Amino acid sequence: MSRSAGIVGAGQAGIVLAAELLRAGFRVTLYTDRSPEDYLADRGRPTACLFGEQVVRERELGLNFWDDTAPSIERIHLDLCAPDRLVLFSVAAPMRLPALAVDQRLKFAHGLRELATRGASTRVDAISVEKLDTLAAEHDVTVVTAGHRSFGPTLFERDPKRSLHARPRRNLFMVNIRDYDLAAGAHHEHLKFSFIPGVAEIFWVPFLDKDAGVCRSVLVEAVPGGAADRFTDVGSAEEGVDVLRGLARDLLPWETEFLAPAAPTSPVTWLSGAITPTVRKPVARLPSGRGVLGLGDAVVLNDPLAGQGANNATRMARFFAERLAARGDRPFDADWLRGQFDEFWAYGRFVNDFSNALLEPLAGFQQDLMIAASRHPEIGSAIFDGFGDPAGLFPWFVEPAAARAFLRRHRVSRADVLRYKIGVAGKIVGHQLSKRLKAPG
Ligand SMILES: Cc1cc2nc3c(=O)[nH]c(=O)nc-3n(C[C@H](O)[C@H](O)[C@H](O)COP(=O)(O)OP(=O)(O)OC[C@H]3O[C@@H](n4cnc5c(N)ncnc54)[C@H](O)[C@@H]3O)c2cc1C
Hints:
Blueprint: E1 4-8, H1 12-23, E2 27-32, H2 36-41, H3 52-60, E3 73-82, E4 86-99, H4 104-117, E5 121-124, H5 129-138, E6 141-144, E7 171-178, E8 191-196, E9 200-209, E10 213-222, H6 237-251, H7 256-259, E11 263-264, E12 270-273, E13 278-279, E14 283-285, E15 291-294, E16 300-301, H8 309-326, H9 334-359, H10 364-375, H11 377-384, H12 400-409, H13 414-438
Parallel strand pairs: 1-2, 1-6, 2-5, 3-8, 6-15
Antiparallel strand pairs: 3-4, 7-10, 7-11, 7-12, 8-9, 9-10, 13-16, 14-15
Helix pairs in contact: 1-4, 1-8, 8-9, 10-11, 10-12, 10-13
This protein binds flavin-adenine dinucleotide.
């Protein structure tokens, strides 16, 4: 008799885990608080761009229903800006594998329907802790993939050793837009990042929206209290786009024409809020004493600055499906599950270290890497491939000596870096002079 898995939550982790376990011969029951129709009628969900091997894995699992309609993202264009309306330099480079950003309402609705055709049992039910205990008794293994909100902070205990933050580091605003002027905006055919250190990181993501089709999903990661932190009182998508236009006028004036005709894709495709990055203990003990495993945001929650949540949910689902399948007839007891999570963490910590590194100001050696990347696209590609596989950034993205060795391997000397920096300094001086000349009097 095949083993049975109960999966609570049909989001990124739940859908992928169910597809993996069905393939491995498990009997799978998916408990979801939303039916496919509910998902399709729901408000907008996060951008959730998948990178690298995660896109490949969804394809291998036959969950790639949008290959012909979603824009294939092959390059990233990053502008590193000064707060006084200047692009200091840009890094533009291809990624090894294309990224893909598809509306999660489509993904989860289609995923649920598809898994039912493959033999998964799907139950529409908002699972409580009490019900979870019943499920844990019914299944050989029960996995909670219900995101970070549903069971609150109590079910999975915070892991203080793996959690660095006690409060959010950014205030977030996301809106999906259409009708922008692609001809007027530079580099918006690619995934575009506008970083203003100390102020905000803004992501312009080619995106497939459930209603509008190909559009841009714009995510603003504002440093609290800074010049871009102006979305907390936004009450509608329209208002949010207006505030975004104001932000562009003040900080990124070269984006104003692109945004001038833009409108939200619908009244519900926007989000605002803030996330406290938190790692939780992976196994929760229920009132009966039974244990359940958590995956995805339920146990590893990062700020979306590095775009890792959905990617990591996919990696975790794959990793655990392989381990559960290899377990044979032996029990999925709490100690064994914890041990598997520790093994996952040998990789997973890179995801968190990368996400946490981006929340901090760039160190001098990281500035050197970025400035070198602006002149050497292969360095840009190595950095951008980190979104698909953060482990590939270590140690050279976080350790000064490793960064210097990395640059040497790419034939970039200290003198080269100095020359590039002098070029940027000249740009700043030119900008200041032209501002003075333009100033009245
Ligand atoms: C603004 C923003 C932008 C983002 N951009 C990116 C990005 O570009 N790339 C990236 O990788 N990540 C991104 N993320 C993060 C990403 O969206 C999440 O990390 C990812 O969706 C987590 O997957 P999950 O399966 O853990 O949870 P979810 O995808 O949230 O799925 C959980 C599901 O469980 C269901 N559920 C909840 N409670 C219950 C219950 N009690 N019973 C049954 N079902 C329940 C819910 O309906 C939900 O659909 C972004 C996040 C935000 C906020």
